[in-house]
Amino acid sequence: MPAPKLSLISSPPSPYARKVRIALAEKGIPFELHMEVPWDSTTHTPRHNPLEKLPILLLPRDTDTTHDASPSTASGLAFPHASEDQPKAIYESHFILEWLEAKYPQPALLSEDLDLKLAAKQIEVVADGMCDALVLRFFETQRSAERQSPEWIARQDRKISGGIQWLDELVRETGADGSRTFLVGPSFGLADIAAGCVLGYMDVRAKHLTWQSDCPALKTYFDGLMSRDSFNSTVPYAMSFKDKIV
Question: Would you place residue 179 in the very low, low, confident or very high pLDDT band (cuts 50, 70, 90)?
């Protein structure tokens, strides 16, 4: 009997949720996708995540991904928000990706080599920090003009620009724009997912930036990622808010 599908609660523009979608696709893990706007009053997000954030990976009660124990008993987690008739929930993209790598180790998205693994994690930190800055900048600009903080926006812009420069230098140093295809090691992995997702997110929340013309090596690298089915099928797009968010 086939194992029940996992379910992922996502949001169209979210780079964090896109990372998980790409990882699931690359690992060939079947799942059901549910799109939500976590800022709307109708969202189901608080039912599964006390932090009210996406993405959320829902595990059917009878899921047994390791073939020897269910995720809850194998990990020792109590899943306090999972009632008898509710699926277990895993949230925060970092943790979801770690969970997937532990429970579905093949194909691996992290190298067994410690230095390469740490290098990939470092790239994820920078890429996710850029995503955070893009989100903070976006919400600040949703305020009326007289309530916006130019200093706050400028700080986020510095983070984003600094991250672009750092990624561009990394791509050129590693040869990932041509002679090599990936940022860490000889194969596609977490570093590429993280970097690719923030670059794609800028097309949604930072269209004023000219990084694609300013950083041709970085664009070449990104174009290579977009040729993968996992990236091409998860292109982010903006959503409409029904409720006031700031």
Answer: low
